[in-house]
Design brief:
98 residues, mainly alpha
Length: 98
């Protein structure tokens, strides 16, 4: 009868299964709660900036109203009619000489 000569050490497998010794799985991290927190903080900042800009806009409007230049009055230039009547024949002769 044949006896098993390999009594002691077992031969290691040539191809070992990957991840044979698995670590215990970590618990899932609360990603959504931190994202909600980040979004809440971002929304607060946006609202704060919106309030600041609306106040600045109101201030600019009030300053522009109080400092607005008065509308310029249009000065009408009154042209006096020439005192001497224009002699067209004389003017035509002078142009022809040029």
């Amino acid at each position: 009868m044949a006896k098993n000569k390999q009594k002691g050490k077992k031969q290691k497998n040539v191809f070992q299964v990957a991840n044979k010794h698995l670590k215990p799985k970590n618990k899932a991290k609360p990603v959504t709660t931190t994202l909600k927190h980040i979004n809440a903080v971002k929304n607060e900042k946006v609202e704060n900036l919106n309030q600041i800009f609306t106040e600045v806009q109101r201030d600019v409007k009030s300053v522009s109203k109080s400092v607005a230049p008065e509308p310029k009055k249009q000065t009408q230039v009154v042209r006096e009619p020439p005192k001497e009547s224009v002699n067209m024949d004389n003017a035509a002769e002078l142009f022809s000489q040029l």
